[in-house]
Amino acid sequence: MDVSHLLDQLNDAQRQAVAAPLAPALVLAGAGSGKTRVLVHRIAWLIQVEGVSPMGILAVTFTTKAAAEMRGRIQTLLGIPGASMWIGTFHGLAHRLLRRHWREAQLPQTFQILDSEDQTRLLRKVLKAMDLDETRWVPREIQWFINAQKDEGLRSKHLKDEGDATRRQLIRIYQAYEEACQRAGVVDFAELLLRAYEIWRDNAELLAHYQARFRHVLVDEFQDTNTIQYKWFTLLAGRTGLPFAVGDDDQSIYRWRGAKAENLNQFRRDFPAATLYKLEQNYRSTGTILKAANALIANNAGRLGKTLWTAGEEGERIKLYAAFNERDEADFVVNRIREWTDQGGARREVAILYRSNAQSRVFEEAFLNARLPYRVYGGLRFFERAEIKDALAYLRLISSRADDTSFERIVNLPTRGIGAKSVDALRDSARAAGTSLWAAALASMAAGSSAQRASQALGAFLALIDRLDQEINELELHERVDHVIQMSGLIEHYKKEKGDRGEGRIENLLELVSAARGFTPDTEDEHIAAMSPLDAFLAHAVLESGEGQADEWDDCVQMMTLHSAKGLEFPVVFLVGLEDGLFPHQRSVADLAGLEEERRLCYVGATRAMRRLYLTYAEQRRMYGIDSFGQPSRFLSELPVELIEEVRPRIQVSRPTFVARKPALETPVPGMRMGSRVRHGKFGDGVVLNFEGNGPHARVQVNFEGPGTKWLMLSYANLDLI
Fold first, then answer.
1. Which end of the chain is more exposed for a tag (fewer CB within 10 A), N or C?
2. Which of 43, 52, 55 is nearest to 19 (CA)?
3. Catalytic residue (choose from 134, 191, 221, 365)
């Protein structure tokens, strides 16, 4: 392929980035702007035009799939076997480095890599050796702590206890875990990068070798890099390297995972000679969708700044539907999907995007009832999720003590000191006597055949199940489910699992209460009608988990969280649940950085849509077992009114218009509303949380980045809108 043909495939901005001079470069690549094409063509340019050896290029992507795609495209462009080049994920390349330099890394040549479950098991052994109780020192929580330190480049010896006894013990466990890994010759995922960084940092000769070899370091999705990844990258680039970073600060949505969007700005400080290139032409969405996305993200401060545009059609206006409740919302989506397919569209071209996994349940029910095949992308159906199975196991054992599967699942969940050996002994006894595990446990207690500690723990578990059975006997179905979830200890158990994952599990458990409240047995079937409400609900849960979800290759509607949607595109997108407290999420509303990340998440969701974008919210929503009357998301009020078309319900109901719903509080500062970013002469930047009073005595509540939350008199605060 000649060079001119290589550049002919690109637009002007892409061409400038691909053919950039040999110097540090930062490419700000908007959604749908062809960043992968630019990366691949940059590599081809370096090899074909600049005469760089393929062995002198290192390219980093964030997923194995993306790395494989890049290698394949390079092979197609240049005929060079991509497998021979250093193209891979951060962890994959770090692993390759450690295999080559296992001696310098102080590892055995045959070192093994621990996955997440292996890491948990090893931590359990460490805790046992230290005689620490797992109910107090939860392995998953400690695992999160250790990995977070490694992601920041910190060993146990670097940490200070800061006078905190709990932190002091965590540091000791971290140290013992490091020693156990070293003895066993194993590394976890976080260790791969940390140790790869350390062998360069501590071996000047080795670092100089790789700096001379890989002068051209290209990194994709740069906004998703964490501290150790950035350190590893900048150490390799050094003073003589020619780094080529591609990213989009507006699509940084993994702060909870340690990603730092500010690494884009840090790159410009560390490489002041770097040229900034912007890819703003979008090849995915209509002009209307892009204008809405631009208006939304403009409310975030500190952006490097870009404006997406398209040479394609303006397209139709964005549809907004105000549902009466979550079921009306799901029915609306079903009906619009049917309209799409009736017009010749495929179901696989439609995506439902939601903020929380728990929102999927109502849509799953609606799709099952409508016989509309669907697939939960990157996740499990609601009733297949581990935490839901845990709660259902408690309910099943309460309903039937002979349910051995449920007994085994929850006998030590949450951890209560009943180990695998105790369960094995019960299983042997039950098999020999031809009884259930429950009966074997009762017999073991009566005979005193178990060790005292295990016997006490087992007795407490049996008593818990019996007590829960008595306590829920007179309650409504949803109250039964709620009581068991709360009193079983599952909520507290999952609270110990840090970050979004633990919070998501709790939300799912509470959503199970909503499922029970909305459950209506099939009274037309005499066998089901004869069942108790609890047994009918448990049977319903099994049936729902066993059908409905289509295979990956089937023509089916795609359902996923907004985080899972990044990097994907669909002709039709439904962005659902746009209510304050749900999206933006409640925990982020009062946090400036958190609110901006939620807005970026909304921006990512909107820019997944190619032709049609639907936005929905519910005036009343039953979620997590509670009925609530929410306010439309503040993000809706940030969209230009002329781009929105309200979809009216079929029945005529007096309902305020979209314009009227937009917050319009009268304040001394025109245009200020909840969610506005403001600046104060003394306190700095903040976000408006609330208003109180009116006229000269009106007050405003602002959450400032430094001082925190403060109430100020609007007349004297001299707040400036940012």
1. N
2. 43
3. 221
Render pLDDT for 316-343 as a digit per residue (tens, 0 to 9).
999 999 999 999 999 999 999 999 999 9
Q: How far apart are the first and last CA of the chain?
A: 50
Measured distance CA(173)–CA(170) in Å, rounded = 5
Which residues fall within 8 angstroms of residue 422, CB to CB, at 6 or more apart?
450, 451, 454, 458
The closest of 25, 6, 16, 30 to 604, measured between CA atoms, is 30
Under 8 Å between Cβ of 583 and 403: no
Asked if 685 is an active-site residue, the reply is no
Q: Which DSSP state fits 574? A: E
Q: Of 134, 188, 191, 220, which one is the catalytic site residue?
A: 220
Query: Mean of the pLDDT values across residues 9-27?
Result: 94
251 vs 657, higher pLDDT: 251
Q: Which tokens in the block code for residue 394?
A: 């408690």
For residue 491, what are its two tokens?
A: 């909520």
Catalytic annotation present for 221: yes
Q: What is the pLDDT of residues 68-81, one digit of tens each?
A: 888 888 888 888 87
Instruction: Given the residues 9, 15, 16, 36, select the one marked as catalytic.
Output: 36
For the whole model, what pTM was predicted? 0.74
Q: Is the peptide bond before 373 cis (omega within 30 degrees of 0)?
A: no
Q: Could you tell me the CA-to-CA distances from 302 to 222, 250, 264, 532, 685 in Å, in that order? A: 17, 10, 11, 58, 11
Indicate if 36 belongs to the active site: yes
Residue 666: how many CB atoms within 10 A of its CB?
A: 10
Between CA 216 and CA 24 the distance in angstroms is 9
Inter-residue contact 61 to 93 (CB < 8 Å): no
220 is catalytic: yes
Of the candidates 251, 281, 286, 607, the residue annotated as catalytic is: 251
Which position among 608, 622, 634, 677 bears the catalytic label? 608
- What is the rounded distance in angstroms from the CA atom of residue 475 to the CA atom of residue 128? 41
Would you call 623 helix, strand, or coil by DSSP? strand
Predicted confidence (pLDDT) at residue 666 exceeds the cutoff of 50: no
* 205 in catalytic set: no
Contact 625, 517 (CB under 8 A): yes
Least confident of 138-147, 272-281, 380-389, 540-549: 540-549
pLDDT in tens, 640-658: 999 999 997 644 444 444 5
Q: Active site includes 35?
A: yes
- CB contact at 8 A, 509 and 388: yes
From CA 53, how far away is CA 72, in angstroms rounded? 18
Strands 626-628 vs 621-623: parallel, antiparallel or unpaired:
antiparallel
Q: Give yes or no for a contact between 285 and 263, defined as CB atoms under 8 angstroms apart.
A: no
